[in-house]
Amino acid sequence: MAWQRYRTTAGRFTADLDALAKCDFELLPAEQPSAPSSTSPASPAKTPVAPARLPRIVALDTALASGLRWSAPTRGLKQKYALAWSPAGDRIASRGPDGVQIWSAGDGKPHATFPAERTLEFYDFAFAPKGQLLAGAATDGIHLFDLEFEEELDLLKTEEKTSSSIHRLAFSADGQWLAAGQLHGTTVWKTADWQRAMTLGSGTGWVGGVAFNHDGTLLAAGGQDKQVRVWRVPEWKLLFERMGPSPVYTVAFSPDSATLAAAFASSTGGQFLFLAPALGERITAVDAHSKLAHMIVYRSDGRRLATAGDDGTLALWDAETRRPVIRIQADRASLYCAAFSPDGKSLATVGSEHVLRVWHADALEKLAGDPQSPKNAAN
Fold it and tell me: The whole model's pTM is what?
């Protein structure tokens, strides 16, 4: 079959990660650290990162005038989360008016279209590391697309009988594994033969986020049961699981694998918790959005991260201090997805307006110091 062209060779993993299993973490609220409960182990004293005042929001019209590279309609009947950059940075995949659309990242011109019914909803896209294979998580399973020959290769069915069971996708760095967050756990597929290798997790509720670290030696997942879990690959040994304050909507590793970020809902909106999987480290929490936070992504150099929220805002953060650099009204209602280009110079977003927008990342940051921004909305 055509997909056999994508066989990969398992790499040798040498990182010594046994110390992770010994780690213990304490979840801190965004405003003030709470004392450990009577059932929780005491944590070493450490001053938490002070909560930062969120900057004023740059209005959409201002951002469009100053930072937009190009935009294109993505409308299907429904389209929320589906957006991915190719590893080379020359293509972007999203839901389009007539199916799965591959765009030229430079000018926004259509590159290829894979027809799909307008009623078919895609929740996520993921490119394989070599960029020739695209996986799309849809209501009927995982679609595999060959970008070189511009054909759909296969449809991977889950064991679930319920529709909308696939929420997130992630390829390992060597392309050997595809992880899918679904209704009752995280299913791992072996790409050599596209057979299900295993299902990880508690099996309770949906999984909202899955992510491999930069070298594919760790897999993280989080979902409706409020747990953040990390496994060591390829042994699939559970290194730790930590309970959060609410369901987990997305997870992301920093490029150096030193930090794992997870998005939760909070009483004040969208909150992110940062887990540092090393001995002696703790978790920091920040309030990022006034409503639910859908996405968090790191720039390839690890110095910036972007978050997307149900309040329609795109926020850029200093990844080291976890302080907000700028907030932008990037959608008039809800912003579902954000992704940096591989070189970090561009940022793509999509939301409830069903418009794919590609921004100049540096130009957006400059708006933070622009005194000519009276149009900015209040917090």
Answer: 0.82
